[in-house]
Amino acid sequence: MVEESNLNSNKPKTKATRPKAVYLWTEADVQKWLRRHCSDYYMLYGELFHEHDITGRALVRINDNTLLRMGITAREHRDAIWREILKLRLKTDIVEIRDLERRHGYLHYDL
């Protein structure tokens, strides 16, 4: 029998629960993101991201040249991964802007 106190300790996720900020992501979080958003390239480059200790803070700073220096030489592959990184940056920026608006009481307009 499960005690009632144990049931309450596992807080259910609510809509208000926010994902961890990208700049706080660990290497494992980046691997999970890469597997989910760049699934066609995960088997090829997941180990490279691991070898270069790519955390969330590093991920959002990566550019095309960084991907090339890491060893991703195929232009099509770099473009696809870069596109996903740009989407992540944009999403992160939007969240930060909305947080600022909420904190300072600005009106929110959808883009």
Automatic annotation (TrEMBL):
InterPro entries: Aveugle-like_SAM_dom, SAM, SAM/pointed_sf, SAM_domain-containing_protein. It comes from the Eukaryota. Pfam families: SAM_2. PROSITE patterns: SAM_DOMAIN. Residues 25-91 form the SAM domain. This is SAM domain-containing protein. It comes from Plutella xylostella (Diamondback moth).
